[in-house]
Amino acid sequence: MSYDLSSSSLPLSLSLPSSPSSSSSPSSLEVSDDLRDEYLARWEIAVLTSIFLITIIGNGLVLFALYARRCYQRRKFTRMYFFILHLSIADLLTGLLDVLPQLAWDITFRFQGGAVLCKLIKFGQPFGLYLSSYILTVTAMDRYYAICHPFSYCAVTSRRSKMMVYGAWVLAAILCVPQVFVFSYKEISPGVWECWATFYLKYGERAYITWYSVTQFLLPFIVLVYTYTQICRSIWTSGKMSGVVDFKQGNKASFSLRNRDPFISKALINTIKQTIVVVSLYIITSIPFIGCELWATWDPKASTSPFFTGAAFTILSLLNSLTSCVNPWIYFAFNRELRAALTNFFCRKKDYSLTYDIDAHQNASDVPSTTSSFISRISRLASSKIFG
Fold first, then answer.
1. Which DSSP letter does residue 321 get?
2. What is the helix (H) or strand (E) element at residue 164, kind and residue range?
């Protein structure tokens, strides 16, 4: 039994760009009906092109910022930047292995690659999506241990973080294997060949799409919510405890604590902001595709709904890779060093490393004072005159 699961760029189905409803079987299709809505097809191509360009440009800038930071600033490659590196690579793979093949598919209408390429593309399409979700997950877990369990975190080397990331790569590849068996290149009607999904069990389609929704979205979402909630709670508790100690201790003993309060407050605010942005955008960018897939699969009346056969469903189903579009901009928004790396490289390339070292030295002090603040201002002014 064969299914055309949707009319869009779904990494699970990815079948006919504008085919009859999903209840149609290959034997019911005729060559005379092998047509599509060209106006809708142009919109599909425009949406996919936009997603592809935003994904490639955003993640390309992140990778270039990491390169500039490492090579020109001679900065240490910390665990967090290790996670960002792999997340950007995962999102780039989403654009190259998922969005780009679907864009070519929509342009040609029917799949033109043959049997081997059909299985290769089907294997690669969900790979970047799985990998991106799991890199986000292990990043959240690493932050959770660093903030909520700092003593045990410090005792563990970076080997664990690397093993978590490499494990995400392996798990993502394993979860893509069923795609090779579900899809095959077959003749869906006389003279019409397509890369087609086949399920031999009655509830195979529902089980497979539900499994994908759980492994690619629901499980990472639960981990993200739990870890970031605990992180915010831990920082909030630390801020309150710092305030209590500062209030009870003498002036001399509490000087450093009083000066830590603004830092704790700022860290709390930034963490909460980033938590809201990461979790909210992960939900917003994942729900359109996951929701459309589950609804179309589980609702018996979905195939007869005007929404299912309309343009809105098709466009929403194209948005499976939106998370890969927004991830790089989230890290640019919350990571000052990445923004500075790009700015200094393109604007002040000759004096890049020296300027950064001066700025870094000015921000290295843990206990601010009036004198050090005045010296810092003078140093920044001098450096701007000399190197600007």
1. G
2. helix 158-182
Measured between alpha carbons, how far is 179 from 126 in angstroms, rounded to an integer? 9
Q: Are 205 and 234 in contact (CB under 8 A)?
A: no
At 149, is the secondary structure helix, strand, or coil?
coil
CATH topology of domain 38-242+265-343: Rhopdopsin 7-helix transmembrane proteins (1.20.1070)
Token digits for 210? Answer: 């539900």
What whole-number distance in Å separates Cα of residue 373 and Cα of residue 356?
Answer: 18
Q: For 131-150, what is each residue's pLDDT tens digit?
A: 999 999 998 888 888 888 77
CB 217 within 8 A of CB 286: yes
What value does the mean pLDDT of the chain take? 74
Domain residue ranges of the chain, discontinuous segments joined by +: 38-242+265-343
At 152, which amino acid appears?
S
Per-residue pLDDT tens digits for 241-293: 555 444 445 444 444 444 444 545 565 666 667 777 888 888 888 888 898 88
Residues near 195 by beta carbon (within 8 Å), at least 6 away in sequence:
14, 15, 111, 113, 118, 121, 122, 183, 184, 185
In degrees and rounded to multiples of 5, residue 384 shows phi and psi of: -70, -35
